[in-house]
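EI: anyone free to look at a 106-residue chain?
SC: sure, send it
EI:
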Amino acid sequence: MKRLSLLAAVSITLFSTLPAHAEIFSNAAKLGANAGAMQYCKKIDTSNQGKYNLLGIKTLKEYEQLDSGDRAKALVYRKKAEQKGIYLSEPLNKERCRKIRRTLHL
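SC: here you go
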């Protein structure tokens, strides 16, 4: 019983020191995922293609301002979102695309 209590205490301590899910991804990863998601989303949500295009352009402009190391990281996340429909480890669907678009303010 003491082992179980000790294990529980260690687990709680370990997990309480981990960052929140939203903070796990760097800004470069988020930027790349946003750019890729806009390309993927305009294919599955055709009613908002113009908005996805504008947001794609906006994120690509921000991408150009990254240094080379961050660009490489952003590119990995962009390709994953664009080609596989995976946005920061979660699958994209039409509703998720619309939520991301609203979050990006367009």
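EI: The chain has one domain: 26-103.
SC: 👍
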